[in-house]
Amino acid sequence: MNLLEELKKYKPYNEQEERDKEVMIKFIDTFDDVLTRNNEIAHFTASSWVLNKEGTKVLMIYHNIYDSWSWTGGHTDGEEDLLNVALREVKEETGIKNIKPIKEDIFSIETITVDGHIKNGKYVSSHLHMNVTYLLQASENEELFVKPDENSGVMWVDIDKSIDKSNEPWMKGIYIKLNEKLER
């Protein structure tokens, strides 16, 4: 199934997701390069809410650009299988090798603003990430490592403390939503 089909079948959780679903579908219908950073207005990304086997902890990284604890995720770089992107990003950013989807369907969607910043010595203009989030599971016994060009910390956080780890107001709201969806 392609991304557009996945988005069309996705059942929004709240008003934010209803609106973002509409915007994402219009975006795909309007632009050809939605999966690459060549689209400097917006492009798709994939993130993960990674739980331990008991569902009591979430895996978080200390993101260097945002200077905050956050979920894992990244750019699709042209790949349409966003679940695969999410799995790859967890492995690259944390060192976790054995990770699996709790469900293969989209868990959450959100449009995220990205302020202008310097990456690899180059200025990146402000833009949007059309983000698709997946719910994944891994063992907290696996060895973790930092990916210094992207993060400076990796750790398992008690799920009820995950919101307080972030210092980004918009992301706190997203993490609250993810945790609420887990309780359903």
From TrEMBL:
Gene Ontology molecular function: any one:
hydrolase activity
Q: Name one Pfam family in it.
A: NUDIX
**Keywords, alphabetical:** Hydrolase
The answer on whether this UniProt entry bears the keyword Ribonucleoprotein reads no
Note the superkingdom of the native organism.
Bacteria
Which residues are in the Nudix hydrolase domain?
41-182
Q: Quote the PANTHER family the UniProt record gives.
A: ADP-RIBOSE PYROPHOSPHATASE, DIHYDRONEOPTERIN TRIPHOSPHATE DIPHOSPHATASE
The UniProt family comment states: Belongs to the Nudix hydrolase family.
State the name under which the record lists this protein: NUDIX hydrolase
